[in-house]
Amino acid sequence: MSELPQSFAELEERVTAQYANLSRRLQQTARFLLDHPQEVAFATVARLAEQAGVTPSTLIRFANSFGFKGFSEMQQLFRSRLVNELPNYAERIRALRTATGEALDSTQLLWEFAEANREVLSTLPGRIDPEQLEQVLDILEQAEIVHVLGARRSFVVASYFSYALHHIGKRAFLMDGLGGMHSEQMKAVGPQDAVLIVSFSPYSREARDAVAEASERGIPHVVITDSRLSPLVPTANVSLIVHEAEVRSFRGLTASLCLSQTLAIALGIRQDQKQDAADPG
Questions:
Q1: Span 130-278: which CATH code?
Q2: Could you tell me where the DSSP H helices lie in 101-233?
Q3: Mean pLDDT across the stretch 188-202?
Q4: Which of 238, 175, 232, 174 is nearest to 199 (CA)?
């Protein structure tokens, strides 16, 4: 085994690179650990194993497979991440409270949802690569029509983004799959168009199929998803990874909606500036 990862980012990169070669159980473990780094930072091996649906020995075996002597040694990288990347006392406190599993009444739950969503919004800009953001805008700007797909929980984000594009004068089509027509709607995407696909774990079949067809046909496609291990990432032109707030296993959409709104408004500004340049009088 090569030198131990020295940061959470290095560990994430190595896990992503080796993910396909891991056993099914270790893949399941990898997904949980990378998608719930806050909980991993503080929780015990027993509690994490229960949440991930694996045995404690599987967590230890996962750590060993990446060169660590034990799980606690690997866990230090998750704790360092909170200090280095998320220097927010409220977020650290929330992670600790999540790990302890204390009960909440309805008012406390409202505060928890509000605080959790506030925290993900505060860290969202730091998680999105500025160059990738501009690449997405390039693809959207150059497309004749932007086709937007999001099934099930993701439909809310896709629907809003399509709505926002219409309001900035960008031709857009919401692939709503009405009557089971997702496949037919995908076939209507032209060679000068682009596709934006929103999908979160467990990743809808419609999203998987759309990414596969777009890749096969050479259609520019952007993915908004929740993990670098998402099956939608490998072939996408650009992938924007969004970490949503999660409270009591209920995941929000606040960060994804914020990102969608930003993309639409930024594209509108680009179009407005281009129009001004073409018609200075």
A1: 3.40.50.10490
A2: 106-127, 130-142, 155-167, 182-187, 205-217
A3: 93
A4: 232
**DSSP letters spanning 16-85:** HHHGGGS-HHHHHHHHHHHH-HHHHHHS-HHHHHHHHTS-HHHHHHHHHHTT-SSHHHHHHHHHHHHHHT
Domain boundaries, the chain: 8-84, 130-278
End-to-end Cα, the chain, rounded Å: 65
Helices (H), 168-253: 182-187, 205-217
Nearest Cα residue to 162 out of 151, 154, 153, 173: 173
**CA gap 275, 280 in Å, rounded:** 8
Q: What's the Rg (C-alpha) of the chain? A: 20
Question: Is residue 210 scored above 80 in pLDDT?
Answer: yes
Task: Give me 123's structure tokens.
Answer: 């860290």
Instruction: Tell me the mean pLDDT in the region 137-166.
Output: 95
Residues 202, 243: Cα–Cα separation, whole Å: 14
CATH 3.40.50.2300 fits 8-84, yes or no: no
Helix crossing, 89-100 with 71-84: angle to 10°? Answer: 150
Can you tell me the distance from the alpha carbon of 26 to that of 59, in angstroms, rounded to the nearest whole number?
8
